[in-house]
Write a structure and sequence with these properties.
Layout (H helix, E strand, L loop, with lengths): L2 H15 L5 H8 L3 H13 L3 E7 L2 E6 L1 H33 L9 E5 L3 H12 L4 E6 L7 E2 L2 E5 L10 E4 L5 H10 L7 E3 L12
Helix pairs in contact: 1-4, 2-3, 4-5
Length: 204
Amino acid sequence: METSSYRQLKLLTEVYDAPDVTQRDLSRRLGIALGLTNALVRNLAQKGYIRVTRARWKRRLYALTPKGFTRKVQLTVSYIQRFLGHYQTIRQTLRQELAPLELHAESRVAIFGTGELAELVYLALREAGIEEIDIYGPSTPANGKFLGAHVRDVEASPPTDHDRVIIAALDGVEEKRGHLRDLGIQPDRIVSLLPGATEDSNAP
């Protein structure tokens, strides 16, 4: 979503959730300067989206008008539509990246990572018919769960027997690749997806 529209949505949402929010709070939550927040509030008030009333000296209350609530709904729908469009594009890209790996139902795959990209990689693998998928993370006191599965400690039990180890990260890919090599994983089994996400992702 365009920055101006997204800021409008964020501000309208904040005002809807907390009418007594201060401009300083809005500035912090939106991640923009106080002066820019003030200008945005004035702009939305002039358009009739929010109503500003003075509660006491230097204290204002904000309320969404019916027009402002309608605008918030419109912006929310637009945001969701764009998000879903990007989501589908990324899933299609992942399917294309997985195709050359020649994986099949009997393949055993490890995902190194537990972020949003790892979720998408997991879904793409399941769509490709891969059932045996293990999730690995860095060595921590308690790696916990990921999509209902136990997150394995890559240091304690590295995925040396897996057909492929997929690095699910957008940065630090080459560092993670080197770390996996040091743990005894064959270099030709280590792959990273979404080329171009990091300059070093395709380094030998």
